[in-house]
Amino acid sequence: MDSSLLFGFSMIAYILASAMYLAGLLFKAPRFNLAGTCLTIGGVAMHSLATLLRWQETHQVGSGHAPLTNMYESLVFFALCTALLYLFLEYRYKMRGLGAFILPIAALIMAYASFSPRIDDSIKPLIPALQSNWLIAHVVTCFIGYGAFAIAGALGLMYLLKKRGAQQRENGLLPSLASIDELTYKTLIFGFLWLSAGIITGAIWANEAWGTYWSWDPKETWSIITWFLYALTLHARFTRGWSGTRIAWLSIVGFVAVLFTYFGVNFFLSGLHSYGAS
Amino acid sequence: MTAKQKNSLIELLASVQLALFLLFLLSTTAIIGTLIPQHAQPALYSQQYGPAAARFIQLLDIDDMYNSWWFLSLLTLFAINLIVCSADRLPRLIRLLKRDNLATTREQLERFSLQRAMDSPLPCDEQLGHLQSIFKEHGWKAQERRTESGAVLLFAQKAPWSRFGVYLVHASILIILVGAVVGSPAFARKVLKNSDFAYKGFVMLPERAFTDHVVAIRQNQPINLGFMLRCDQFHIEFYDNGMPKTYRSQVTVLEQGQEVLRTEIEVNKPLRYKGVTFYQSSYQPYQNYEIQLKKQPDGVTSTQIIPPAQETHWEAGGISYGIINRERQGEVTRRVKLWLHDGEGEASQLWVEMGKEVVIERPSGQYLLNIKQMYATGLQAAKDPGVWLVYLGCLLMLTGLYAAFFLSHRKLFAHVQENGPGCRLLFAGTANKNKVQFGHVFTRMADKLQQR
Known about the structure:
The structure holds 2 protein chains of 2 kinds. By secondary structure, chain A is mainly α. Chain A folds into 2 domains: 1-126, Four Helix Bundle (Hemerythrin (Met), subunit A) (Up-down Bundle); 127-278, no CATH class. Chain A is built from 8 helices and no strands. Chain A has helices at 3-26, 30-57, 71-93, 99-115, 134-166, 177-210, 218-240, 245-268. Chain B starts with a helix and ends with a helix. In chain B, 35% of the residues lie in helices and 39% in strands. The relative contact order of chain B is 0.14. In chain B, a hairpin with a 3-residue loop joins strand 10 and strand 11. Chain B has 4 domains: 2-95, no CATH class; 115-159 and 408-450, 2-Layer Sandwich (TATA-Binding Protein), CATH 3.30.310.80; 178-285 and 378-399, no CATH class; 287-373, no CATH class. Classes of the chains: A mainly alpha, B alpha+beta. The A-B interface holds A 61-62, 124-125, 127-129, 131-132, 189-190, 192-193, 196-197, 200, 203-204, 207-214, 216, 218, 221-222, 224-225, 228-229, 231-232, 235-236, 239-240, 265, 269 and B 16, 19-20, 23-24, 26-27, 30-31, 33-35, 38, 66, 180, 200, 239, 241, 243-247, 266-268, 270, 277, 279-281, 380-382, 384, 387, 390-391, 394, 397-398, 401-402, 405-406.
């Protein structure tokens, strides 16, 4: 059994879970949601195991390193963070309706990582620039943040759909607007803390490797743009009392900025931070 | 400026609206520098965007926009906004925290959203003892005060300082900005008139060579180090698939001609010495080779630096040798084909990998041979006296964010009043954040109080 097979299984689990959650939403049947949860738990378990297995496999090409070093590995880790955070939210806040919005993101990321021709999934040894203990700290903090922002974006979308749908028919499986709003806010502050930690660990690492903690490299600049956007969102909520539709839109805009920081910079702009590009 | 105008200016600088506007401006303008190349030759801009746009780019310093007057002004305004806004709100917060909570009246407690009134058969003093033990059990340290009417108020609070979290975050941003200014080469050069105070420099140091200075990046000015640095050797190692594995410089620091430190610099393992940090940044392969030879059993040795395709004669070893072919990856030699002859029989011809010792058996004896390509190592040197402020700011920011988001200032009150043989009790609580969660804690404690 090798890691790519297990990653494949977890992708299938996420796709099936998405289908179950969507069916639960459309047919208003909680049974489907329960199946969705079981599939997600199974997917996350296989996904974690596959990550450890791939870590083990890196020893065959070099001296072994955490599988967090290129686009494929970061995509896969992004999906894992998103699914894991979702399970935590479902357990903590008992809102299964969320799954229909979040699991498709995890499934989509896994499918993109596996099938896109521009993503190379082979294990490469670690180039000198990445041989640092900051690698794990930086990538893990960033992707916990990204995972949280993915969920906040999905919650924003859910809020807007529920609000539009509320005039026509009440969908009992989606949580109330007030609790979606509250959860969006909680997810945003969680993500903001981790994004800050991700930028800080990145800056310290840059100072260790390149002799400058901030060089306005496109990746750095876009990460600070994203940070500014979320800081704006949180201030608007704290001090101006923004909530509901406005925060929902801002959480979606914020996630678009996250995606651009993550993909856009690699694909459209050039810079120092090019490890994730292939 | 009249007093009224002055007040409205301060009001503007203290306002959150200005902060929101500046955050929006900073995030949108910062995009420009990621789309338009920075620090390129002026010709490139007119070639790529046309002469008119190029003039505009030069006018607004968009080719170095993050150091342009208008972007730095935005950042300065942002810092002023942070200071004035915090200075405006902090006194109010300190007054709030200094307020005498034990002076709270029963009427005020009745207006709290979390409150429960109950009648207890216990006499006042016994009820107070019970309250104290329940508070203690849940980790609350209560103070009490008897009022003139004979009623007693119990008060306890948790994490009042967490209200400072948001100001800690604001202060941390200011500390980071101060650290960035202190460590900025431009600040050292233009304001302090002392470019040795903070700089970013570079040196391309050939093996065996010394330097006592580095060259400032972009200004191309030499900067004295105050000590000497020698590159002893530079190594490149590769993985089996040809990817680079290690770039390593062996260096020696010398003070007044004395060796004081021998160490290695690798990517991610810089050398710190006297406030200067040296980073492995690049390398330059030279097309000549160092050949170390030792002849056994005589024990004579030789070290020569030779170009390829040139015959060299070693008198003491009694041989002639030379490089007759090379296998290269770009400028980097992976192995060379060596020709060696001691005048007896056929000459030896063999492929030798860089840095791997080989033994050649000849009629005249045994030759131990080591060949290495010559390099120069490219080292970046940075002196940044502000980096510790930046790191301190980062630490404070994470602490502040945690306090601001995840801790809340919680207060509990219990008002006890004599009522016949028993007493009347009003239990009330408030939290500035995470109210739902605190509501659960409050309900649990209130239920416990009511059970007796």
